[in-house]
């Protein structure tokens, strides 16, 4: 056999079985999904990957939000800034993720920093656009009232404009978060770790249970994150749902 | 004061000078683009003053710090501009909060004001503006403008976007409120009927200039020029009936010793109301009583006509016979 064998497969001894020895029948026969293997390996394999994935996402969305937020407020005050920033963000957004990661590796190497740079760059467009749209959507009359009452520009921004832009900002945050959770699996390609690492692993080994479990976890994580953000949004904007019943 | 915009030949407001005595409602009125709103917004410097000055109690608004100036001037405008994300209480408390009032004091003030503008302090304080009708929202807008008890209020077509019935009630309620609090009010409108109703004095503007400044009655009785005459309308005689009461006319003496008959109108009633009663009942005189129900005499069509058109010979109300004309 001159065929190059993947180290993992070689280590496993068999064609697809990652843990030789006391493996269950389900694992040995590589069924579609073996729940017992997942629960046996939860703390050793899945939990660390999940935590890693969450951290990756939090950092990416957090950094992306800070950059976009500052940029959007600047663009809100200085209109000229909108076009260059959104064009740059849109350009980054159009680069295929694998290509972007590959390109970044040339510059910053295979590490966590490179992964985050990539993920952050994908959040910018949506977060910037939504924040700016939210700010611009504040009714002119509301701002005039604030000025006429003697609120300073800063007070108007903090007390009036940003709270009223919150629904749009939160909507952007939801999309950015879900997108990042999904994209972060690709980041495993350049050593990002997280659930993506398990998926890559499973693709290479052909072990279906690991593949299905890691994929499902990524989906569940995205859904849970979205749900949490909806709850945060509702808590932040109780006024948005209290309207005069149409007569 | 003068307002010029760059690139325009004509100033938006040209050497406009007038004075509003404390506690009065002064109405600025004129066709669209006459500069009335511009003039109003120069008082709290939402629009900057190009030339001239505006003084409040002798103090120039140009010298006051902008935020300080604005916190002392209540502002109510057509678009209302309530803060949709704040409860009614927080909306009303906006300026007091800036002034550093305590929470308890703000709550008490908000309750008091809600009651004053005819809303329910119990249930409405915690609700959001979106839960109220336009008329109610503007009541909250008025309450918010008065929150820190500013001596001056600027009102820019405050009831312009409100349906006629609610508008009438808001006008009446505001007038009653004004009787109590006696703010100095500058009130912009393009509706002559509203001006006549609300204004102690009315300033008619055209093309950034003041055409006439007078009480409603004087304005309607003797318009300064053609423009003012046409602006106040052909029916200005009828409109005057709204601003004068039965106090202002000569009453025919009452029937001695008899109580005021049923259907007598009170002496505080407007001539407009008394006259429409006569028309509706097909009579030329109507009994008048005072606030205690005591008879005061009879109002007649002749007496009303004599007041509205004193320079003309009062026509006999009871269908003048041709013979009297010729004699």
Largest sheet of chain A: none
Q: Please tell me the total number of domains of chain B.
A: 2
The quaternary organization reads as heterodimer
User: Number of helix segments of chain A?
Assistant: 11
Order of helices and strands of chain A: HHHHHHHHHHH
Beta fraction of chain B: 15-25%
Low-confidence stretches of chain B: 314-327
Query: What is the fold-level CATH name, i.e. the topology of the largest domain in chain B?
Result: Rossmann fold
- CATH superfamily name of chain A? MetI-like
Portion of residues in helices of chain A?
over 70%
Q: Characterize the overall form of chain A.
A: elongated
Total DSSP E strands of chain B: 11
| Secondary-structure-derived class of chain A | mainly alpha
Strand content of chain A: under 5%
Q: Which CATH class of chain A applies here?
A: Mainly Alpha
Give the total of domains of chain A: 1
At the fourth CATH level, what is the homologous superfamily of the largest domain in chain B? P-loop containing nucleotide triphosphate hydrolases
Describe the 3D structure.
The complex is a heterodimer of chains A (247) and B (327). Chain A is 75% helix and 0% strand. Chain A has helices spanning 7-12, 25-28, 35-40, 42-77, 82-94, 97-108, 112-136, 140-148, 153-186, 195-205, 208-236. In chain A, helix 4 (42-77) packs across helix 10 (195-205), helix 8 packs across helix 9 (153-186) and helix 9 (153-186) runs antiparallel to helix 11 (208-236). The longest helix of chain A has 36 residues, at 42-77. Chain A starts with 6 loop residues before the first helix and ends in an 11-residue tail after the last helix. In chain A, 36% of the residues are buried. Mean pLDDT of chain A is 87; it is low at 1-16. Chain B has 327 residues and is α/β, with parallel strands linked by helices. Helices cover 38% and strands 15% of the residues of chain B. In chain B, the strands form 3 sheets. In chain B, strands 4-5-6-1-7-8 form a 6-stranded mixed β-sheet, sandwiched between helices. Chain B starts with 24 loop residues before the first strand and ends with a helix. The chains are: A mainly alpha (247), B alpha/beta (327).
């Amino acid at each position: 056999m001159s065929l190059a064998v993947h180290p993992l497969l070689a280590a496993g001894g068999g064609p697809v079985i990652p843990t030789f020895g006391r493996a269950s029948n389900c694992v040995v026969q590589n069924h579609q999904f073996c729940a017992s293997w997942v629960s046996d390996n939860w703390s050793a394999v899945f939990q660390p990957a999940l935590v890693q994935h969450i951290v990756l996402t939090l950092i990416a969305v957090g950094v992306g939000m800070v950059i976009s937020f500052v940029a959007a407020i600047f663009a809100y005050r200085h209109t000229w800034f909108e076009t260059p920033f959104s064009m740059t963000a849109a350009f980054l957004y159009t680069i295929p993720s694998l290509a972007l990661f590959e390109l970044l590796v040339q510059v910053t190497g295979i590490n966590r920093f490179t992964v985050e740079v990539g993920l952050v760059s994908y959040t910018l467009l949506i977060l910037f656009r939504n924040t700016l749209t939210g700010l611009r959507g504040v009714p002119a009359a509301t701002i005039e009232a604030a000025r006429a009452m003697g609120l300073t520009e800063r007070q108007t921004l903090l007390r009036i404009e940003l709270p009223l832009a919150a629904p749009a900002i939160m909507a952007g945050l939801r999309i950015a978060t879900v997108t990042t959770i999904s994209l972060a699996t690709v980041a495993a390609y350049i050593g990002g770790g997280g659930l993506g690492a398990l998926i890559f692993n499973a693709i290479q080994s052909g072990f279906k249970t690991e593949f299905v479990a890691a994929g499902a976890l990524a989906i569940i994580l995205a859904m849970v994150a979205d749900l949490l953000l909806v709850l945060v949004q509702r808590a932040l904007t109780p006024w948005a749902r209290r309207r005069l019943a149409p007569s | 004061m003068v307002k010029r915009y760059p690139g325009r030949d004509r100033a938006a407001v040209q050497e406009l000078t007038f004075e509003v005595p404390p506690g009065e409602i002064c109405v600025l009125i004129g066709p669209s683009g006459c500069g009335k709103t511009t003039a109003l917004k120069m008082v709290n410097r939402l629009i900057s003053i190009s030339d001239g000055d505006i003084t409040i109690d002798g103090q120039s608004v140009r010298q006051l710090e902008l935020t300080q100036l604005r916190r002392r001037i209540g502002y109510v405008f057509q678009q209302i501009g309530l803060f949709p994300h704040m409860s009614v209480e927080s909306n009303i408390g906006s300026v007091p909060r800036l002034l550093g009032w305590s929470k308890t004091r703000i709550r008490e003030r908000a309750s008091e004001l809600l009651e004053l503008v005819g809303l329910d302090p119990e249930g409405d304080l915690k609700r959001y503006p979106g839960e109220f009708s336009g008329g109610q929202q503007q009541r909250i807008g008025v309450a918010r403008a008065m929150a820190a008890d500013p001596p001056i209020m600027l009102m820019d077509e405050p009831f312009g976007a409100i349906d006629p019935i609610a508008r009438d009630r808001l006008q009446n309620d505001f007038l009653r409120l004004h009787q109590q609090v006696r703010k100095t009010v500058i009130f912009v409108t393009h509706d002559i009927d509203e001006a006549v109703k609300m204004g102690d004095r009315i300033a008619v503007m055209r093309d950034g200039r003041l055409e006439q400044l007078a009480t409603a009655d004087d304005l309607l009785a003797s318009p300064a020029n053609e423009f003012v005459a046409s602006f106040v309308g052909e029916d200005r005689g009828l409109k005057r009936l709204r601003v004068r009461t039965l106090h202002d006319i000569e009453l025919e003496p009452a029937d001695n010793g008899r109580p005021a008959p049923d259907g007598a109108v009170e002496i505080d009633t407007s001539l407009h109301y008394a006259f429409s009663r006569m028309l509706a009942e097909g009579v030329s005189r109507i009994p008048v009583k005072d606030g205690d129900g005591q008879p005061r005499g009879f109002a007649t069509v002749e007496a009303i006509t004599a007041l509205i058109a004193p320079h003309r010979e009062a026509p006999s109300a009871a269908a003048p016979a041709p013979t009297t004309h010729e004699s």
